[in-house]
Amino acid sequence: MQAPRSELALQIKGMDCANCALTLERGVARLEGVEHVQVNFTTATLEAVGSLDPEAIVARVHALGYQVADGDAKAAANGPREARQMPGGVAGFVSYLWQDRATAVALAGAALLLLSLPLTLADATPALTWSLERCTS
User: What is the rounded distance in angstroms from the CA atom of residue 5 to the CA atom of residue 17?
Assistant: First the structure.
């Protein structure tokens, strides 16, 4: 008996490049019942359509050397779910960047540097004024 046609969306961890996405896409596409699979490296998502066995897809992802986000692995074991909508625009981009700890730390550091810039310029203003007065005299 074949499972009913459904859709599955998983968050994938461990992809380093577009070739990783292609490897996952080809590997999952070979599974029985998978009609269409699309892996997006940028958003780290895997979307599959067909008469799917979610446990088989998660097992194939692990066999290929990648991980499925914890919440997604549990949801996949309980059966297919609707594809999750990611926010678009700037909000979506920022939420994507905050997912990775190293990127989040780098963004926090950049924000602190930007916040300190006005203080640095305000502190340097008297020295610049003195230099300009000295040059014009």
Answer: 30
Topology of domain 6-77, CATH: Alpha-Beta Plaits (3.30.70)
SS3 6: strand
Q: Residue 64, exposed/middle/buried by CB under 10 A (0-12, 13-18, 19+)?
A: middle
Number of H helices, E strands in the chain: 5, 4
How far, CA to CA in Å, does 129 sit from each of 47, 68, 116, 119, 126?
60, 58, 21, 16, 5
pLDDT digits (tens, 9 = 90+) for 81-130: 444 555 677 877 777 777 778 888 888 898 899 988 887 777 666 655 65
Can you give the residue ranges of every domain in the chain?
6-77, 89-136
